[in-house]
């Protein structure tokens, strides 16, 4: 047992212990504003907060959540009358192993089926580029147009696996595991084309996105 | 620190009785093992604390507490085989040790719990290979694999399996309930009864208790079956059994809500669903086991 092998193994274990000791077990969490400071007026629409139930909050885990509907003036004939739902879940730390709930599970779990999906890029009103996922979901007769992506450290990622890999990389590089899920939904009215619903959701997102860095630090 | 004890036991166990050693040398015999165990404790104490915390808080992984005991039993059960296994130290284990430690560092730095926990199992294999040889790793492969059952899978991957199963269970339950006089409307995992909605907060979750059931069926198969093939079949049977048990839970809750007091029913079912599920699952396992014996009776054989 007291062989060169033994001493080599002891050396390897001790070196690893030393490497791990130099690393604390706390994240660096940059300061951010609470999500409820998201502007109440966006793109000519007015916000109505939808409180999340305690059950839902317990499932979502430790984070800051915004769940809102932005509605237009009631008696208008333009497409602004159609409400847009905005959900943002910001997690200051994912160190404890809690992960963001993917809409890929939550929407089917609530009875929605994914009809189509694709990844696209768009630019917000300041010309900043975002990479997001666009989805059409349906439940019986009702159709909705969904845009969602994962936002962390100034990067937008539509794919949850990629987001997870970037989380690991950023944990190593910056000791940060904060991140957020941003989700915008609007109904596709029976009287309108998919394209017009897409237009509405995208335009809202372009107006909303410049606010994000205040709540989800770069 | 179940692991440190565990690992110490694992490293110390295969040691053959010392032959013709002087007293002083025998006293020093345990020192190398103790120093390795101590370093392992230093390396893994944080990982272990968090893992035990997860066992106590994650409902799907409460069986984690049983795994170290089961592994200790498996090693004790194999003691004769282990004692007769020739010890051949090997340099070939060292690369595996290095790899495991690299995985551990990656897991800690990248805050990926599964990675840092899995590294322990690789490291055990590497240490056994280095100090006792490949034959010993082979002899201990089952206990090493069983350790994996105590490690929570990354949700992102595990949901791919459990979520469709939960949808299936919800669908079957919502098809059965109307036959029993409970009208239902179901949307995904949310089942709407005339008086209330079931499983609203659970909508995003995959099937519960799949891992606990799988572990249970591995234990069951180990004790009551003698061939690997039958044990594998039993272990795989845990998947349909998990679906069945969940259907039973939802149907039971639905019946209680409809024919009893809704508030009480929910309380009762959350309280007892664990036990009820466990008993139902065990009954299903027993049935599968009996069916297997009927279909192909066991031949007399030695393991």
From TrEMBL, chain A:
Signal peptide: 1-22
Keywords tagged on the record: Signal
Domain Methanolan biosynthesis EpsI positions: 8-215
The keyword Ligase is assigned to this record: no
Pfam family, one: DUF3485
Name of the featured protein: EpsI family protein
Lineage, uppermost ranks: Bacteria, Pseudomonadati, Acidobacteriota, Terriglobia, Terriglobales
Automatic annotation (TrEMBL), chain B:
Signal peptide: none
GO molecular function, one term: peptidase activity
GO cellular component terms, semicolon-separated: plasma membrane
GO biological process terms on file: proteolysis
Listed transmembrane segments: 30-49, 61-78, 90-111, 117-137, 144-163, 206-225, 232-260, 272-289
Keywords from the named record: Cell membrane, Hydrolase, Membrane, Protease, Transmembrane, Transmembrane helix
Protein name, as recorded: Exosortase/archaeosortase family protein
Protein location: Cell membrane
Broad class of the protein's primary localization: membrane
Membrane topology, from the record: Multi-pass membrane protein
NCBIfam families cross-referenced by the UniProt entry: 8TM_EpsH, exo_archaeo, exosort_XrtA
Any Pfam family hit: Exosortase_EpsH
